[in-house]
Amino acid sequence: MSTTTEQLSGLSATTLLRFATAGSVDDGKSTLVGRLLHDSKSVLTDQLEAVEHASRSRGQEAPDLALLTDGLRAEREQGITIDVAYRYFATPRRRFILADTPGHVQYTRNMVTGASTAELAVVLVDARNGVVEQTRRHAAVAALLRVPHVVLAVNKMDLVEYAEPVFARIAEEFTTYASELGVPEITAIPISALAGDNVVEPSAHMDWYGGPTVLEHLETVPVSHDLTDCPARFPVQYVIRPQTAEHPDYRGYAGQIASGALRVGEAVTVLPSGRTSTIAGIDALGNSVDIAWAPQSVTVRLADDVDISRGDLIAPSASAPRTTQDVEATVCHVADQPLAVGQRVLLKHTTRTVKAIVKDIPSRLTLDDLSQHPAPGQLVANDIGRVVVRTAEPLALDAYADSRRTGSFLLIDPADGTTLAAGMAGDSFASAKAVTAQDDEGWDF
Question: Shortest CA distance to 234 belongs to which of 220, 221, 253?
Fold first, then answer.
């Protein structure tokens, strides 16, 4: 059975959107997600009954929709989100994978996890409080992770009497800040997650707003996560050598294609060794195919016996990345213990883990004015800063701007395996572009 190029091109269209929610504590993230699930009829009867029971036990007459996503017992008792809550739902127009991320500054690290694979981020702001430091931090993380679409949901508009000037002021402040970070698209929507205004159904209280509801925007925002447009990258996870009577000489390299497409007959280079060969065959789901593409999991067979092991990267020779032992990157520090100059760490990139040392921390980002604080010496929890890391072995690392999959890495404590920082290789933020109002009536900044 063979796969053709026509079949490959037909897969570029997709109806799946990955998005994350973020915001400060009590801005209403979980309530918004619960309202989306409830009003789009994506909640099972037994789930709704459990929420109604939990709400009554807390003395609430109406069901607390936030409990649909706050799944941990500690979360329900405290009324806050601690873990990243993933939910899957669908409408007739699109399928969704959402990550409801914590708002408390202590759990900002989880926002990095939730937004790392998102095509869209919903940043909530309490209309009474406006843009606060945690709002700026979430905007910076979204920009750093190069999330292409950001929605500013100005929540609790019912508590400010649905006043248009309040919304306009917050939208302008956030848009100016996010634009300086290089966020390419920002859409501001006034909502009340508790009352349901502009979440799924248009609000009857804000006739001055003519833009989409949150769900309408989620259903219609153009997303392109066609990884086949990027150069092919195939990190090897496992070497398959059955050595059976049926397959005495079989040698295959199994893994998930991180980006691009691999074709039989294509000249490839194995990194970091630099050895070259040709793809002799590709096995997918028990069948031989002529072409395979991201994010398929396949087994690749080469024409030559090449010394390959877990952690090696197979790439087309014409577009193979350069290898380096000096990694310059921006990191989000996620551990409680600081990251200091001279510290020995492990660097995990795709399926490869190597020893490394932090050679320098040139700067730390100041969220208030986006200035760089030079030579901080160390990074502490939730800091965003530039680092220079020297690795013991070469890495085939792309720039994060070119590939979110092969341009990202983790720094790990070798003593106990704790994740210290999430890194993005190359330039940090996208080039800031002036963002002007496209539709004043629709508040699409």
Answer: 253
Three-state SS letters, 28-94 = CHHHHHHHHHHHCCCCCHHHHHHHHHHHHHCCCCCCCHHHHCCCCHHHHHHCCCCCCEEEEEECCCC
Nearest residue to 414 via CA among 319, 341, 343, 316:
343
Task: Report the chain's terminal Cα–Cα distance, integer Å.
Answer: 49
Quick one: how many helices (H) and strands (E) in the chain?
A: 8, 25
Q: Which two tokens stand for residue 430?
A: 């996208």
CA neighbours closer than 13 Å in the CB half-sphere of residue 261: 19
Question: Which uninterrupted H or E stretch holds 95?
Answer: strand 95-100
Two tokens at 152? 């500013």
The model's pLDDT over 34-88, given as tens digits with 9 standing for 90+, comes to: 888 877 777 656 566 666 666 667 666 666 666 655 553 343 344 433 456 678 8
- Whether 355 contacts 318, CB under 8 Å: no
Contact in structure between 417 and 245 (CB atoms under 8 Å): no
Tokens of 98: 């959402």
Angle formed by the axes of helices 164-181 and 133-144, nearest 10°: 40
Contacting residues for 433 by C-beta, under 8 A, at least 6 apart? 179, 182, 184
- Provide the whole-model pTM: 0.79
